[in-house]
Amino acid sequence: MSRVMVVLAGIVAVTFAFAPACGQGDADAALLLFVSNRTGNADIFLAGSDGKKAVNLTNNKAEDTYPAWSPDGKKIAFTSDRNGAPQLYLMDADGGNVKRLTDHDGVDRAPSWSPDGKKIVFCRHLEGNPEILVMSADGTGATNLTKLDAYDADPAWSPDGKKIAFASNRGDQGFDVFVMDPDGGNLKKITENPNPFGYIYPAWTPDSKKLAHTDLGENALHIFLSDAATGKRASLTKAPGLNTQGAFAPDGKRFAFLQVDADKEQNPVGNLLVMNADGTMTKEVLKREVPIEGGRPAWKPN
């Protein structure tokens, strides 16, 4: 979502105090997609979870963001403005064979795959009214699932394929997490603490039972973990700042997320962090080079 960063200035302090780094060895062998502006624009990189030996997969002067692995790890869906308005594209895991998936006058972003790899859910902005759409993985048959005059964005397909989570400001003075069936039915509100700042970005645990999301905590925007059935929540992050755009590793043991630097109110960039899924052992992987809009990391499927 597009947000105004000035609202964060009064609630964020710049002090980073991290626990010892996550363990080395097999843990760092896991592959992670991340977005970096180190080339002067946003590109999608592939690296180990330690951020080292990063390979630029897009290497394009456009803004390439919102990477999402296909369930088999062979393809990556992403958003790019290389041909005008941001649209959805598909590339091989090595960055080759780029194909455009959507082509229209609006803005498409934030793709998320169905577990069987046959469909992609995403956010489409048309005339200031973002909606959640689903289409076949080849870009055909796009269908609007939300159809409401509200800000619906940041979709995430559950690993068991039964639900789609998304953020919306419908009926409240802020954003909450909602879930629905893949056809748009059985809408359910999960959170009861409207977040006026946005940056919700729901992320499922691998067992599809809980959702990580950003919410207003004590003097900061933290990532919380909410039960998809009961709504009961617990805090995952504790450091000051804006904590957002999280993603669980496929085994559920680790969690990658972004944290914004409070002194960057315009065109904010953030840090990429990896921690244990229980909120312990936080490691700073990248510092001040990840764009907050579209910078969500993505673990390669097992």
Summarize the structure.
Helices cover 1% and strands 43% of the residues. By secondary structure, it is mainly β.
Please explain how this structure is put together:
The chain has 302 residues and is mainly β. It has a single domain, classed as 6 Propeller (Neuraminidase), CATH 2.120.10.30. The protein has one helix at residues 26-29, and strands at 31-36, 43-48, 55-56, 64-69, 75-80, 87-92, 99-100, 107-113, 119-126, 129-136, 143-144, 152-157, 164-168, 176-180, 188-189, 203-204, 210-217, 220-227, 233-235, 243-248, 254-260, 269-276, 283-291, 298-299. The strands form 6 sheets. Strands 3-2-1-24 form a 4-stranded antiparallel sheet, with no helix packed on it. A 4-stranded antiparallel sheet has the order 4-5-6-7, with no helix packed on it. The chain has a 4-stranded antiparallel sheet with strand order 8-9-10-11, with no helix packed on it.
Distance between the termini: 29 Å
Which CATH architecture?
A: 6 Propeller
Largest sheet: 4 strands, antiparallel
Structural class: mainly beta
**Order of strands across the widest beta sheet?**
3-2-1-24
What's the number of helices? 1
N to C succession of SSEs? HEEEEEEEEEEEEEEEEEEEEEEEE
Rg calc: 17 Å
CATH superfamily assignment?
TolB, C-terminal domain
Briefly note the CATH topology name. Answer: Neuraminidase
According to DSSP, the number of beta strands is 24
CATH class: Mainly Beta
- Report mean pLDDT, rounded to a whole number: 88
What general outline do the C-alpha atoms trace?
globular
Instruction: State the helicity in percent bands.
Output: under 10%
Strand content: 35-45%
Give the domain tally.
Answer: 1
Low-confidence stretches: 1-28
